[in-house]
Amino acid sequence: MSRLKELDVLRGIAALNVVLFHYTTKFRLNFGHRYSSIYDWDYGQYGVELFFMISGFVIFMSLQTGTTLESFAFKRFSRLYPTYWVCILITFVVIALAGDPLLEPQSVSILLWNMTMVQGAFNIPNIDGVYWSLIPELLFYLMLGCLYLLKVLSYTRALAVVWLSLMILNTFYGLPLGAYILNLQYGMFFMAGILFYKLKFEQGDWREHLLIGACFLTAMVVYPSVRFFYVCLVSFSLFYLFVYNRITFLSWKPFLFLGYISYPLYLLHQNIGFILIRKLSLYLSSEAAVILIAIVSMILLAWIVTRFIEKPVLHFLRNLHFSRSRISGYFLK
Asked: Which of 218, 186, 184, 211 lies closest to 196, judged by CA?
């Protein structure tokens, strides 16, 4: 299945929102800004939920093509880990060299733990705060891989009912086992992505619409706030526009470009951007200019990593995997 450019648009929107949140609201919380907080972009913190919905759509789609579990695992590994390792090393080195008293460098042992991507599950500090969202992603991949292995992934409606019910039960009663592993805090967004795939490519009917509504309501139960209601309304509406081919009006090249570099941008922007903003603030009085320079600088760095590291490494690893699979298939004939 060819790449869906509309998903890059959604990735670009999500990435830009997260960056703006961190450079305004989050920076103010950690270090303080001189300008008024009315200009902060609080809504940007919810860009991660849109990323989760995109993952639900894409990962479910990747398992609909008759792939093997080994191939699925390799593709997920090659997509996530090499770029993550490069970005974490860049962040570690920049923090160590910056000498910022409010951003202390971590030890090598913590760096090695972070290389696993599951450090948060063991209460090991993240080299960069944004890494917290990678564990829900990994757990979702693991769950879908298990369901695929058990040959029950096609029962998406039953899966939605059971999963959403567990999320609501966990909210009110705090399930003692499995809440973390089963993604009961963010699963409704992954599930919505799956259901949107069913609508777009498998002619889903009123039951998919009903279950998407249940995902929305579950999000409201787990995160009850007016602000989150508006965020979910926008995110779900964007996906409906995508499903019914009405999002072309947002196919603006800058959004497509941000979608193209979204993974390195997400991994690199927070702490390095904080350091850059704090350094630039010593020489520039306009914080708006400082934030703009930081955004442009991080976009440039993310593009460099994407263009010269992420894409070539991904291409090499997947070609290597394809070649080995073809050779293995030849000898098994």
From this structure: 211
